[in-house]
């Protein structure tokens, strides 16, 4: 019984704020109706409910393939079947570069969409854009998003401490997000729903810096809160990463 309750809680948690949540609520009503029909021995009503349940399962699988994939991926990444790998890279200097880039772009109201790859491979998404394979740096990222340049439209994919590709096309979320947010934010939420990536967004319209993760968006970040979130991914600056940052800065001079 407890196991069933935990499973139901996990399913509701995973589907919260998605269109699947409404369907699950509908399913709950159908199951309740079927149970009541059994209790009150309403054979015909019970037969209708059972028919809906059996034929509905197939329809649900077809309708909710993306959600099911996301749920299975989530399960695969969870700690239930062993320790989840950490995505920390010990490359704290990357955090500084990303924060610097976001700050500059935000001040100048230049829109940006930066996707940080974690355990889910983004090879297919990277192929939709232009491959760069360049070391991450704030000036390079700022240059990519400079309006009216060939690569500014679309998303940048980061893999480890490298810029893998630019001008990439992401899937848009089909779930509801605030109307103030357009396709850049929808794309960030979309990729974070179907993978474990973290998406960094700078709004062209408002300069607001946001992070999308696990299908949810956190807005109005300042440098400190952005640094804190990014440090969870790249790790705090270690002695090694500080040295590498100094070397990196020297190379840029
Ligand atoms: N599917 C997508 N994949 C990657 N980038 C996208 C996608 N859709 C839109 N974009 C980017 O978002 C830009 C359009 O942003 P739009 O103004 O519609 O969204 P927004 O969320 O309101 O962002 P902003 O606040 O920056 O205006 C496009 O020029 C493109 O660079």
TrEMBL record:
UniProt keyword Signal, yes or no: no
InterPro entries registered for this protein in UniProt: C-di-AMP_synthase, CdaA, CdaA_N, DisA, DNA_integrity_DisA_N_sf, DNA_integrity_scan_DisA_N
Q: Which UniProt keywords apply?
A: ATP-binding, Cell membrane, Membrane, Nucleotide-binding, Nucleotidyltransferase, Transferase, Transmembrane, Transmembrane helix
Q: Which residues form the signal peptide?
A: none
Any one biological process term the GO annotation gives: cAMP biosynthetic process
Reactions performed catalytically? 2 ATP = 3',3'-c-di-AMP + 2 diphosphate
Gene Ontology terms, MF aspect: adenylate cyclase activity; ATP binding; diadenylate cyclase activity
**DAC domain segment(s):** 65-223
TM ranges are 20-40, 46-65
Q: How does it assemble?
A: Probably a homodimer.
Q: What family is it from?
A: Belongs to the adenylate cyclase family. DacA/CdaA subfamily.
The protein's name is: Diadenylate cyclase
Coding gene?
dacA
């Amino acid at each position: 019984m407890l196991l069933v309750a935990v499973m139901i809680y996990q399913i509701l948690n995973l589907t919260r704020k998605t269109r699947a949540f409404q369907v699950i609520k509908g399913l709950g009503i159908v199951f309740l109706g079927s149970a009541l029909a059994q209790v009150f021995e309403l054979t015909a009503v019970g037969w209708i409910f059972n028919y809906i349940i059996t034929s509905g399962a197939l329809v649900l699988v077809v309708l909710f393939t993306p959600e099911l994939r996301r749920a299975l991926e989530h399960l695969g990444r969870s700690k239930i079947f062993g320790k989840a790998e950490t995505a920390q890279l010990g490359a704290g200097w990357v955090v500084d570069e990303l924060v610097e880039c976001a700050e500059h772009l935000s001040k100048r109201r230049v829109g940006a969409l930066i996707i940080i790859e974690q355990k889910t491979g983004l090879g297919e998404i990277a192929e939709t854009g232009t491959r760069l394979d360049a070391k991450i740096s704030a000036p390079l990222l700022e240059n990519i998003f400079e309006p009216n340049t060939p690569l500014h439209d679309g998303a940048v994919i980061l893999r480890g401490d490298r810029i893998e590709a630019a001008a990439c096309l992401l899937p848009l979320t089909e779930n509801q997000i605030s109307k103030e947010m357009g396709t850049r934010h929808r794309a960030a939420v979309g990729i974070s729903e179907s993978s474990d990536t973290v998406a960094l967004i700078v709004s062209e319209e408002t300069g607001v810096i946001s992070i999308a993760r696990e299908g949810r968006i956190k807005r109005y970040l300042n440098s400190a809160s952005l640094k804190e979130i990014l440090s969870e991914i790249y790790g705090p600056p270690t002695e090694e990463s500080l040295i590498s940052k100094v070397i990196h800065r020297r190379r840029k001079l």
